[in-house]
Amino acid sequence: MSIVTESLAAVQSAIAEAAARAGRAPREIELIAVSKTHSPEAILEALDAGQTLFGESRIQEARAKIPLLPSRARWHFIGHLQKNKIRHALALGFELFHGIDSLELARDLNRIAQEVSERPRVLLEVNVAGESTKFGFSPETLFAQVEALLALDRVEIDGLMTIAPLAPDAEHSRRYFAALREVRDRVQKEFGLPLPQLSMGMSGDFTIAIEEGATLVRVGSAIFGSRSGKGWRPAPDSAIVD
Ligand SMILES: *Cc1c(COP(=O)(O)O)cnc(C)c1O
Predict the structure, then answer these.
(1) Alpha helices (H) in 49-91, listed in sequence order
(2) Domain that includes residue 216, residue range
(3) What pTM was computed for the model?
């Protein structure tokens, strides 16, 4: 068995164990194999092992990589979406955009989606820890802007996403995951907006996230190894420009 295949199996069993601890069915949780910086060959290994959902965080890299992989691979965009990349992003057919972090970006996405007849599904990124270095709605801003977000007719809001602050100990993330779930419950209740998806948890803390209600976990290095060096680049003669 390849290392990627073995690591995937280990992550899948950790997901099943965390689900069992929380009294949840493992099928309530979907694993996103975060393939940013990793080669198409590594992604193919994961596909061959049965993993079909992948996460990329840079549009330029995704544009180079996605066409090289079989169409059974499914893609989520998990990064910060820049306004000038929205058209390219929509053309790549991402099933879900995790990092919609402002009303302004949601409006730009809605307008361009209208122009190109797309209906993107999105998660709203919430900065639950209030870190100044992170993107995302503060919980207060989110409550204040839910109605404006709901008025966007092209963008389908499926749930919320967060990135916990870096910490030496996974248990530290629990309060932020619980906070995201509480924000979700409040928005659902006050605005009648169903938000089934909670995207939270990465390699270091995905089991904690599952215990706190994650439905999507974004796991990169625990599957593909560390992202050292420059990472994968398209061949210099490829026609991709950004
Ligand atoms: C890179 C990345 C991940 C995966 O991180 P690992 O620690 O390697 O699992 C998850 N979420 C986002 C938003 C990322 O950018």
Answers:
(1) 59-65, 86-91
(2) 3-227
(3) 0.95
Task: Work out which ligand 1 atom sits closest to the CA atom of 206.
Answer: 9
* 220 Cα–ligand 1 center, Å: 6
Number of domains forming the structure of the chain: 1
CATH number at residue 35: 3.20.20.10
Instruction: Name, in order, each residue with C-beta under 8 angstroms of 198's C-beta and a sequence gap of 6 or more.
Output: 159, 160, 161, 180, 181, 184, 213, 214, 215, 216
Region 195-217: what's the mean pLDDT? 98
pLDDT of amino acid 134: 83
Q: Within a domain: residue 166?
A: yes
Residue 86 lies in a domain: yes
Task: Give the integer Cα–Cα distance in Å for 200 and 216.
Answer: 6
Q: For the segment 87-120, what is each residue's pLDDT rounded down to a tens digit?
A: 999 999 999 999 999 999 999 999 999 999 999 9
Q: Which of 31, 57, 94 to mutate to test the pocket of ligand 1 (most atoms within 8 A of CB)?
A: 57
Q: What ligand 1 atom has the least distance to the C-alpha of 202? A: 9
Residue 132 has pLDDT above 90, yes or no: no
Q: Kindly give the distance from the C-alpha atom of residue 231 to the centroid of ligand 1, in angstroms, as a whole number.
A: 14
**Atom of ligand 1 at shortest distance to CA of 78?**
13
